[in-house]
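check this one:
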Amino acid sequence: MNFSWKVFFSTIIMMLITFSVGGYILITTLFQSVYVREIDSAKEENRIIQYTFATALTAIAESKNTITEDVVIEISRAATKNIRGENTQIRICNQDFDSIYESNMVEYDKQLLKKISMDTRGYTILKDKNIYYIQTACSLNVSGQIYYLESFRDITSIYKERKVQYEVYKKLLLALIIVNGFISYLISLWLTYPIKKLSRVAHKISNGSLQDRVKIKSEDEIGRLARDFNRMTDSLEYKIHELEDITRRQEDFIGSFAHELKTPLTSIIGYADMLRSQKLSPEMTVMSADYIFKEGNRLGALSLKLLEMIVLQNQELELKRVSAKQLLAEVRGLIYPMIRKGDIIFEIAADEAVLYLEPDLIKTVLMNLIDNARKAMDGVGKIVVRGVKETDGYSIYIIDNGKGIPREELSRITEAFYMVDKSRAREQGGAGLGLAICTEIIKRHQGKMEFDSIEGKGTSVHLFLKDLG
């Protein structure tokens, strides 16, 4: 069953129970109020009739010294004519509960007369031929004779009125249920419409359409659910794109790795076959052996780089406190032999700070970055290394005025085996793993490495190391 129908039927059932109980209580309360008022009126009537009857009998008893049944009947008729209303009948009984006078024949139970005493007045409800009476009874003692006076007040009208009220309320309840049912149905559709929108979007997302979002602007629970759903979808879309990107990079990595292996292996196999199958001149033999040696070194360097990446991802770093100036000075000494070969101006300036890091790995990063800057200038240019103390860490800037990197290539230069200029990189002995290793080292230090470059003007690398101490 749809949720909207559940809301609709739940509302109708709750409404039916509430209105039925409420209407029953209301009508019963009104009836009870009228009922009590009729009982009070019946008792008051009985008291008046008792007073009138007792006064008349007492006067006759004082004058004649005897009271006969004929006298009682005569007084009863007179009292009936003078006092009785249209809805009231009276009956007089002797002490044996035998009827002496009845203004109208009403079936009654003598149990009420047996229960009352001289000082009490009792009542009960009688039903005679679909007519309801309040039977009120009292006793009187006149000259030693006991009489019982009963008055019968017709209250059929209040029962009929209650029945009419029930009938009217049933029709009213039916009308209310129809009207409110229609309104409840519209409300249930309105309340569940956002849920249907959520369901539709979820169905589209399950079919691969990750761009769809739920457009619900309410501030209630469903609105908050929709916003959480959209945030979940954003996160899911990001994760999927991230997985797709990782898959693409893995495929590129495998392809690049296979290519990087194929090129030197082809040369090694080709020249080895020439040495094995042909009689070559001494010069050709030396050249072939030189190619095999160089390509073998390339394969060895490639293997070491890959091993370094794997080790970095699994080893625990042993961090030490190192002086920033001392670290950069050591890097200057290590990189100097490569820099002095060309006409390159090399400058280092550093703020003093104590860094908490693995010094050998950070040296590897700096030397890779400086060496990349050197290769980008073809032996002529300027490299500036600057260390700046920050409030929450330390920044190192490596700036060159070399060839620069195309803007569209910047996002991929840290991928394994990715080279902006592949032929030039291979000539210089590169395999496209240097920046990938640097990225992994910086990531292990909880830092960040950012590149900014303008093609033809140079490249700036911002290396930020968090204060882990």
DSSP finds ten helices and twelve strands in the chain. The CA atoms of residues 117 and 415 lie 112 Å apart. The chain has three domains: 3-162, 213-315, 316-466. Residues 422-431 have pLDDT under 50 and may be disordered.
